[in-house]
Every structure is written in C-alpha cells, then in structure tokens.
Write a structure and sequence with these properties.
Number of strands: 12
Largest sheet: 5 strands, parallel
Oligomer: single chain
Number of domains: 2
Number of helices: 9
Distance between the termini: 77 Å
C-alpha cells in the first residue's frame, strides 16, 4: 500500500509519513497543494510542455487530502479525483480540523471515503486507512465478480444464439422447435410433427462434402415446396434430417403436406454425386393425435423413429406413427 499525502503543512505531511513508514507501509508520495497532487495523479496536466509533464503515479492506493489549502481546496480536488476514471475508485481520506464539520459534509458529497482529525493521532490514522483499504478491496472483489458474471452472461447469450440455429442447414435448431412444440402442447393445441430423412443418409457421423451438397439441394427443394407448409421448419440435428411442426391441422391436411414434400424431392431428380444409386428420395415420419401429457422430446423421437422405419421399408414414403401413449424413448404403447 502506498499513500499520497496532500497538505500545505510540511509538519503534517512529515508526521503522517512517519506514522505510515513506522507501520511498515512504503514511503508515501507528498504534495504541498491540490494542483500538484492532481498533476502527480495525471489528472490535470493540460497546458504543460512535454518536458514539464511528470509520469502519473500508478501505485497510489489511498489519498490523504487536507481540506483547507491555498488555491484549490481539498473538496474540489477530491471531486476531480472522483470524476477521473483512473482514480475514481481510490479512497480519499480528508484531513480536517475539529471545527470543519460543514466542510466535511461537502467533502463526503464530493466522494470522500472517510476523514482524519487534526492533530493527527497515530492509532486513528492507521485504523481509518486500514478500514478504507478493506472497503476498497471488498468493492474491487465485487467488481471482479460482477465483471465475471457479465462475461458469463455474454457467453451464455452467445451459446444460446448459436444453439438456436442448426449450423448444417441454417434453419432453426431442434432446441427451438422443441420449445415451440412444448408451448403448443401446454396450451392444449393440436400438434403434428414431420421428421424428414434423406434416404440412404446415415444419421450419425459427419457428412462428406458431396453428401452435404446433396442435402443442401434437397433443402432448397423443400424450402420452395413448403410455402405455407408448417409453422416451423427446423434442422434435425443429424445429417440429412429436418423437422416440421404443424399446429391446429387435421390429419388429412398433415398427410397431404407430407406427401407434397416427398413428391417435390422425387420430381426434382437430384442425383447423388459419384453414386449410381439413382435420384435422391426422402422418407417422412408423421406424428398426429398426440395424447395429453406428451412432451416434445418423446414426440420428436417418435417422428424420427417413424421416418427411420419408412426408410427401412424402401424409402420414398410417408410413415404415420400409431396413436397411443408415447414413452420417453418415443415408442408407442397401447392405451389401457
């Protein structure tokens, strides 16, 4: 801890300095007037030549400031110190005579942390300095914690923003679709889900560049064909997968929309790069008539299982999941 003593009395400056050094603190900086102290702190050096400008003191932890001094008084100097970003958090202890109560009130309004009465008492001086430093250390700790919290909030917002977008397709992510689905289910609205799978695409692993180009072309066809298709189209979190949420639609409309998508991809005759397997097709799993109490997780899993079953049966078809109770793995159980 290093202090800056500002007092027009040489005797006071030396008494305070002697008490501090005797207590084990480094030799304090000293100034006989407020203007000199501000220059030492780098607050007011305007108008000075480069040669006259002194390097600002960067290691000052506490300032002991006399209230009554020739020229600028300690109250004005304290206010300027508190207005400066580099010194705003540095504690300022006012040094006052016993009849300076009015001036002390003004000093506290200017930002002073505490005061020390003249004549200087060693025990009181050291106790008030330690108290000011403890308070500053606690405030610094809280500021560090608050900054860490702000940084964490920024990181979480960034993570949530990234999680809201399916990077493979640029569409909404399955997390977003799940949230919208749960909200609709909680409101008691009829919900249907389509899980779209490109036939022949593995749902695991990273697609090759050729597969990704194929998936992009399929997505383009679906986007053109899906005008008015559903309330939300999202990525499926796996290569060659999409999810479509439809609300307040009868089964006949949902089935017609699913077949419309399947036919659009079939008629586009998208060739698989480097493969003789013929044009790309899609299979669609359809879930409708969702039982009360179902959540989005099992519902989406059921739609994906139905799409997988459609692909396993040869692909290029729409498979409707059976009605009933959906267990947490998306499997159907007959109603009791």
């Amino acid at each position: 801890m290093r202090a800056l003593i500002v007092d027009d009395s040489l005797e006071i400056r030396e008494v305070i300095a002697a008490y501090l050094t005797a207590a084990g603190y480094p030799d304090p900086a000293r100034s006989a007037d407020a203007e000199g102290a501000l220059r030492m702190l780098g607050i007011e050096q305007a108008g000075l030549s480069a040669e006259a400008m002194a390097p600002a003191l960067k290691d000052i932890d506490v300032i002991l400031m006399d209230i009554m001094m020739p020229g600028m008084d300690g109250i004005e100097a304290c206010a300027r110190i508190k207005r400066h970003s580099d010194t705003a958090e540095t504690p300022v202890l006012m040094v006052s005579s016993r009849d300076d109560n009015t001036a002390l009130q003004q000093a506290f309004l200017a930002g002073a942390s505490d005061y020390v009465r003249k004549p200087i008492e060693r025990v009181e001086l050291l106790a008030r300095i330690r108290s000011a430093l403890r308070l500053k250390a606690e405030l610094d700790r809280r500021r560090v914690q608050e900054q860490a919290l702000r940084n964490e909030l920024v990181r979480l917002r960034t993570s949530l923003s990234e999680a809201a977008v399916d990077t493979a397709t640029g569409l909404a992510s399955p997390i977003v679709l799940a949230g919208v689905t749960d909200a609709a289910l909680a409101a008691g609205r009829p919900v249907a889900v389509l899980a779209v799978a490109i036939d022949g695409f593995s749902p695991i692993g990273v697609p090759s560049e050729a597969e990704q180009r194929t998936a992009d072309r399929v997505l383009g066809v679906i986007e053109r064909a899906s005008a008015g298709l559903g309330d939300l189209v999202a990525g499926g979190a796996s290569p060659g997968r999409l999810l479509v949420l439809l609300r307040d639609r009868p089964l006949a409309d949902v089935s017609a929309l699913a077949d419309r998508l399947r036919l659009a991809v079939e008629r586009a005759r998208i060739e698989r790069e480097g493969e003789p397997a013929g044009p790309v097709t899609i299979s669609i799993g359809l879930v409708h008539e969702v039982p009360p109490g179902t959540s989005s997780g099992p519902l989406l899993e059921q739609a994906k299982r139905a799409a997988g079953a459609a692909s396993a049966r040869g692909g290029n078809r729409v498979e409707r999941a059976p009605s009933g109770h959906v267990d947490p793995l998306g499997r159907m159980r007959d109603r009791a």
